[in-house]
């Protein structure tokens, strides 16, 4: 039975994406929307570009680079980990882990952490790439581990949360949760603060644990499974969580987008939404890439949509990211689109990787980092 469930995990996202592209009264799958012309208002300029091994590989991986100080770290599906100067792209060190990476990259407190398909968590020294420790968690790790300097928190495919000692990798605690019967392949990355470890689960719940011992502090249900079939009832939180101030932002597939109070889990606001990508926040608004390919800007005070851009329908969008006064989002053909935060109109577009861009864009200051599916990592800035 376990093997069947694993197969369903791997296959469901493809089924879900097909369902998004089909109307309720037609069996024919609709193609991705064709890109429309627009008047370019700003231009994206390439600062540097570098290849990172095989990139995301042939399975549905979501390997996202990470930045600490003046360095950017990236990993490919085969286990090649690279540290670079984030301004120039110069390679500082490279490490081959000799095993498939599926949860990457976490970096903080001078340590790079990664998860593997074999159920291992590996910690590397951020300055040298040398391995500090390796821990077995016995299930696929599909998202970057999170580290608060004392505890490394890992979320596994089967909705377990594990706290590891940041210095040794020894297990401190385990939180066990029963996953949904069917889930999208992937998990959102957990978040950690000095007091809490927070994660979104395949059941549409968000749980906050005491980071020192794994004891639950609060639990909040964001989405309620509905429908007759198991596919209809999928409400995964796969796009990750976003923490801004004291508010935790979350979206679910076939469920809702919501803002939660960090300390209590109380729902501050919510609205219907379906997203497997996640959210971004800026200027008092929340932005999301819906499963349909629509990008929305929502006023978090009134929960009303300020604007909605449906011209990227069925283009399998990445999570959005706030970049200056724009929203950056990638698509299945490797285009990066810039939309205005004010009204959602297109202001710029450039193609980075013909194999597509599914990883969330990464923004640090005036630099936009895009990691394409084939392994092309590109740093962009707005041309002045």
Automatic annotation (TrEMBL):
The record's principal subcellular location, in a coarse class, is: membrane
One cellular-component annotation, GO: cell outer membrane
Explain the purpose of this protein: Part of the outer membrane protein assembly complex, which is involved in assembly and insertion of beta-barrel proteins into the outer membrane.
Protein topology in the membrane: Lipid-anchor
Q: Which HAMAP family match?
A: OM_assembly_BamB
Lineage top rank: taxon: Bacteria
As given in the record, the signal peptide range reads none
Q: Where in the cell is it found?
A: Cell outer membrane
Entry-linked InterPro entries:
BamB, PQQ_b-propeller_rpt, PQQ_rpt_dom, Quinoprotein_ADH-like_sf, WD40/YVTN_repeat-like_dom_sf
Task: Provide a GO biological process annotation.
Answer: protein insertion into membrane
Gene from which this protein is expressed: bamB
Protein family membership = Belongs to the BamB family.
Q: How does it assemble?
A: Part of the Bam complex.
What name has this protein been given in UniProt? Answer: Outer membrane protein assembly factor BamB
Q: Give the species.
A: Pseudomonas rhizosphaerae
The answer to whether keyword Lipoprotein applies is: yes
Known Pfam families for this protein?
PQQ_2
Q: Where is the Pyrrolo-quinoline quinone repeat domain?
A: 79-309
Keyword list (alphabetical) reads: Cell outer membrane, Lipoprotein, Membrane, Palmitate, Signal
